[in-house]
Every structure is written in structure tokens, then in C-alpha cells.
Write a structure and sequence with these properties.
heterodimer, A: 489 residues, mainly alpha, two-stranded antiparallel ribbon, 19 helices, 2 strands, globular, B: 3 helices, 0% strand, flat
Chain lengths: 489, 118
């Protein structure tokens, strides 16, 4: 170790090193060890091994924090910070990556595009997410964001023979690059204002400048545009339904869960950190965006006949709900955001997994009619989907209720009564369109008798997501206290 | 607000107005005689053979990407070479890691047939 790379730096960076190492190794193993196409499913075990090692490294960091009774470890002169917040999100990313890796081989095999690269991309995207949750420097954060986004552009277009997949990838790439441009422009203004890329230094500089400085407003608006695009909040949501629909369903699950969770980690770091002094400016701005997201997301979902598009619009409305926690801004609100993201990852991935299971060679299985009478054909899938949909709608005793409860509680505590009422009313709209799927599954007659896909990975992934969705709803205490210890202050 | 930008602003206005005024004046003075030869893209160049927006093979794109990657790699080696004495073995290790990552990409591209032209 040298002065440029101390043992503390190494300790903080180990999870990212492991993810990058395994990501590169998987790319090579694909043709060095498993040249036969049907051997590629063994790569899943390498991914799982890599994620387990990464989990071990994260566990050591968590253990170190709790034993030493410190809030955070800072490395590389303040560019990376491991705190409860970073660890909380990294656990979510690991779970999402593992679930996607488990289900991808069956789905891609059915779709006829089972290439080994998907596993490398999953791990490298996860590496980018690590930097998004742990980064406290504009450049580190931006590189993390681009590492994640580049992997996602490729994964969205993974079905090379499918026009929709190509279209989705190009749309996502162009709009993603455009929004990254906004974000970097905002970063350059922030750097110009403060003379530093470190979030803490920028915060101090902005505090001394005052909130109404026009340059601060310029930085705030451009950074917000970039961030809100990544979480697909209205009015920057147009890419989401197309990208979600065209991407392979397993990638859609990863996009909706992993990418969105990572972007929320990034958003929280920015808004609770350097942009916190200008809270009076962004609070009404985000309130408008949140209400617009809930409105557009919920009402556009009503008319969708494609389940993936429906879930895409529902994910837009969930982004609105999560933003409400940030708007409330007290400890309950931030805790609500963390819990909601955790819950959201499991229930959304679960819902997409069931859609992925319906995919067959000759049929996409994405339409509402394809789900007709699912309960007669595969009751297990139908009841799991019911749990996920109840949770997405926010009905107790599922996990979605806990997430919404904390968001609403924080809104009431901070006196945002109007927002609380609007958010509650939209739950009723959401129930309507989620129950269109339920009606199709349970009441409509069975039209298509061919059995749905099963595989060990799919069963495992569905068991984990279903169990977590119920567990967080019925026994939330451990998750709540974990979120309580992960607050960003 | 930032100050001292007034001269630049005036300069910008002049720069925008100058070509507009000149082109406007020229339009008033010159005779207008459009013809087929005159409206071609390159009046005095080689005859246009076909539309420039034709489709060409995606291999050019892959080769271009590979070129950019290794081009950037050599550029990144320069600052290390300049600071080599000061960085010592740490610098060597760092550059090795950097090169290894790119070599993995190169092996991958080679084995996937990105360099085979036909």
C-alpha cells in the first residue's frame, strides 16, 4: 500500500473490485470454459459466487461500522464514503442482481438469445451502482452512473433479432445521453460555484451563497433534470414505457428495480447533500414533479393492455410516491424512502418475474389476455402475482403498505396535508388497474393451455421476492431498524 | 450576476448582425440566375455518384470503437510516463490494472470475431 492507495481505501473499494473482477472473468469464462451454448447456465453460479463474495465484503464493512461505533468510513480523500446509507442500498443492489442472474438464463434461452455477456453486464452494472450509492464526489458519481447506464443500454437491446428491443435500446441510449448532458452541465456549474467536486465542500459553498443566486438556481434545475430522468419521473418519463416494453423482461425487472434504486440513492445524496441549502427552491419543484408523476403514471396505466407497459407506468407513479418522502424531508420521510425503495425492488421484480415466466418461443406472454385464467393453469404464479399486485397497490398485510405508511406519516408530520390527500386518492386509482390484471388471472376463462415456464432459478427468485414482500409487510421491525440506522443526515 | 461580460455581449450581437447585414446587402445587389448546374451541392467538384446516406456495414463501427479505445489507452499512458519517477511501483501496478481491463476487452472482441472482416 502506498500514500495513493491506503489500506482504508482498499477496505472501502473491495466490493467494487470484486464486482469488476467477476464481471471481467465472466466475460472470459463465457468462451474459455463454456464454449457450448447449453453450458452457459453454469455462468450463473459464477455470478452468484461473485455476489456472495461482494456480500461478504459489504458485511465486513457493516460489521466494522457497528463495532467501531462510527457513522462512516471515508476513502480516497473524500470521494467514496461507506455509511449506513451506502450499505443499505448496496444490499438492495446485490439482491436485485442475484435475482436477475437467476432468472435470465431460462428467459433468454426461450427468447433464443442466451449469450454469456448478460452476466458480465449484470455484474458491471452492479459495480456502477456501488459507486452511485457510495460516491461523495461528482466525478465518481458520474462515472458510476455512466458505467451502470452503459451496461443497461446494451442489456435493453439484448434481443438482437427483436425490433422492439432495438428500438427500446436506441431510445434509451439517446435520451439517456441527453439527460447525462444536462447532469454534467449542472455539475460544471456546481464546480464553478464551489471550486471543488466533493459534495461536502459544494454544500458549504452553496450555503454561503444563499438560495436565490441565479447560478445556484441554474445548477439546481439542470442537475434535477438529469436526476429526475434517471428515476423516470414526469415530465422526463417518456423513455420508460418503451424501454420497459422492448427490453427482455428480466432486464426490465433489473431496470425497474436496480437502476431506479441506484438513481434514488444518487438523488438522495445530491438533494440531502450539496443541494440541501436551497431546499426552499426545490421543495415546490419536486412536489409538482411528484404529483405529476402520480397523475400521469396512474391514469396512463389504466388504458394499457400490455402488462409490461402497465407496470412501467405504475413504476413512474411509484417514483412520485418515493419523491414525497424526500419532500417531507424529516427522519421519518427519509426512512420512508429507504423502506419504500427496499419494498419496491422486491414487489416490482416479483411482478416482472411472473410476466417473464409466461414467455414462450412463439408467444411473448405480455398482454393482459395472455394472463387470462392463469389461476387454472399455474395457481402458484397467479397467487404470487396477486401478492405482488396487492403490495404494489399498498394493501396490508403486504410490504407495499409499510412503504406507503411511512411516506404518508412523514407528510402529515411535516404538514403537507394536500400532498398526503392527493397521494392517498391515487391509491384508489392504482387499485383499479392492478385489479384488471387480477380479474384477468382469476375470473377470465382459460384460453391458452400451454404450461408456463419453470426453472430452478425462477422458482428460487420468485420464492425470495414473494417471501420478502410478505415478510416486510407482516414483520417489518428488523427492516425498519436497518433503515433507521441508514439515514442520511 | 457575473460582471464584465458587457463587451462580450456587444461582440456577440455584432457577430450575429454582421453576416445577416452583409448577406442582405449582397442579395439586394447581385443578379439572380438559378440553374441546374449552379444548384448542385459541389458546383466545381466531382459529380455526386449516389446519396451520401447509404447503408454501410456495421464492422466499420466496431473497428472505429476499437480504435478509439486503444487510442485513448495510449493517451492515458503519457501522464503516467511523465510522472513515472514520482509514482514508482504504485504507478506501474495501477497502469497494469488499467491495461489488464483493456486486454480483457481485447481478448473478448478477438474471440467474438469482431476483427474478422469476412
Amino acid at each position: 500500500m502506498s500514500q495513493y492507495y491506503t489500506s482504508v481505501d482498499h477496505f472501502v473499494l473491495v466490493p467494487a473490485i470484486l464486482l469488476a473482477l467477476f464481471g471481467c472473468a465472466v466475460l472470459l469464462f463465457d468462451f474459455l470454459l463454456f464454449p457450448e451454448p447449453r453450458q452457459r447456465k453454469y455462468l450463473v453460479w459464477f455470478v452468484a459466487l461473485g455476489l456472495v463474495f461482494t456480500g461478504g465484503a459489504l458485511w465486513r464493512q457493516q460489521h466494522f461500522l457497528s463495532v467501531q461505533k462510527i457513522d462512516s468510513i471515508t476513502a480516497f480523500g473524500g470521494t467514496l464514503t461507506i455509511d449506513g446509507f451506502a450499505l443499505f442500498f448496496n444490499w438492495i443492489f446485490l439482491a436485485a442482481s442475484l435475482i436477475v442472474a437467476l432468472i435470465s438464463y431460462k428467459y433468454l434461452e426461450t427468447a433464443g438469445e442466451h449469450q454469456g455477456e448478460i452476466y458480465g453486464l449484470i455484474l458491471l452494472a452492479n459495480c456502477g451502482m456501488f459507486f452511485l450509492a457510495a460516491g461523495t464526489d461528482l466525478i465518481t458519481l458520474f462515472i458510476g452512473l455512466e458505467l451502470m447506464a452503459l451496461c443497461f443500454y446494451v442489456m435493453v437491446g439484448f434481443l438482437r433479432g427483436d425490433r422492439r428491443s432495438n428500438e427500446a435500446a436506441v431510445k434509451y441510449l439517446l435520451l439517456g445521453a441527453f439527460s447525462s448532458g444536462f447532469l454534467v452541465y449542472g455539475f460544471s456549474v456546481l464546480y464553478g460555484l464551489s471550486g471543488s467536486t466533493k459534495l461536502a465542500a459544494i454544500r458549504m459553498a452553496l450555503e454561503s451563497r444563499g438560495a436565490s443566486d441565479p447560478l445556484v438556481i441554474l445548477a439546481l434545475v439542470t442537475v434535477s433534470v438529469g436526476l429526475l430522468f434517471k428515476i423516470s419521473a414526469v415530465p422526463f418519463h417518456m423513455w420508460a414505457p418503451d424501454a420497459y416494453e422492448g427490453a427482455p423482461t428480466t432486464v426490465t425487472a433489473y431496470l425497474a428495480a436496480g437502476s431506479k434504486a441506484a438513481s434514488f440513492a444518487f438523488l438522495m445524496r445530491m438533494f440531502m447533500g450539496p443541494l440541501a441549502p436551497s431546499r426552499e427552491l426545490w421543495e415546490p419543484l419536486l412536489a409538482v414533479v411528484a404529483v405529476a408523476s402520480m397523475t400521469v403514471g396512474n391514469f396512463a396505466a389504466i388504458t394499457q393492455s400490455n402488462v409490461k407497459r402497465l407496470l412501467a407506468y405504475s413504476s413512474i407513479s411509484h417514483a412520485g410516491y418515493i419523491l414525497l418522502g424526500l419532500i417531507a424531508g424529516n427522519d421519518t420521510g427519509v426512512q420512508g424512502v429507504l423502506v419504500y425503495v427496499l419494498v419496491y425492488v422486491f414487489m416490482t421484480m416479483g411482478a416482472f418475474l411472473v410476466v417473464a415466466a409466461l414467455r414462450r418461443k412463439e408467444m411473448l406472454g405480455e398482454d393482459l389476455e395472455d394472463m387470462a385464467g392463469l389461476v387454472h393453469k399455474s395457481p402458484g404464479y397467479a397467487f404470487l402475482m396477486l401478492i405482488f399486485l396487492l403490495s404494489l397497490a399498498g394493501i396490508p398485510p403486504t410490504a407495499g403498505f409499510i412503504g406507503k405508511y411511512f411516506i404518508f406519516l412523514s407528510l402529515i408530520q411535516t404538514g403537507h396535508y394536500v400532498l398526503a390527500v392527493i397521494a392517498t386518492l391515487y391509491v384508489a386509482v392504482a387499485i383499479y388497474y392492478y385489479f384488471r390484471i387480477v380479474r384477468s388471472m382469476f375470473i377470465s376463462p382459460l384460453t391458452d393451455r400451454a404450461p408456463a415456464a419453470t426453472s430452478l432459478g425462477l422458482k428460487l427468485a420468485l420464492a425470495v421476492t414473494g417471501l420478502m414482500t410478505l415478510l416486510i409487510g407482516i414483520y417489518p421491525e428488523p427492516f425498519l431498524s436497518l433503515a433507521q440506522n441508514s439515514l442520511l443526515r | 450576476m457575473p460582471e464584465g461580460y458587457l463587451p462580450i455581449f456587444i461582440y456577440l450581437i455584432c457577430a450575429i448582425l454582421f453576416p445577416i447585414v452583409l448577406l442582405g446587402l449582397a442579395k439586394l445587389v447581385r443578379p439572380s440566375l438559378p440553374g441546374q448546374v449552379k444548384s448542385e451541392a459541389y458546383e466545381c467538384g466531382i459529380q455526386a455518384a449516389s446519396n451520401a446516406r447509404g447503408r454501410y456495414t456495421v464492422r466499420f463501427y466496431i473497428i472505429a470503437i476499437l480504435f478509439v479505445i486503444f487510442d485513448v489507452e495510449t493517451i492515458f499512458l503519457y501522464p503516467w510516463a511523465v510522472r513515472h519517477q514520482k509514482l514508482g511501483w504504485f504507478g506501474v501496478a495501477e497502469v497494469t490494472v488499467f491495461l489488464l481491463i483493456l486486454i480483457v476487452g481485447y481478448i473478448w472482441a478477438y474471440r467474438k470475431g469482431a476483427l474478422e472482416w469476412v
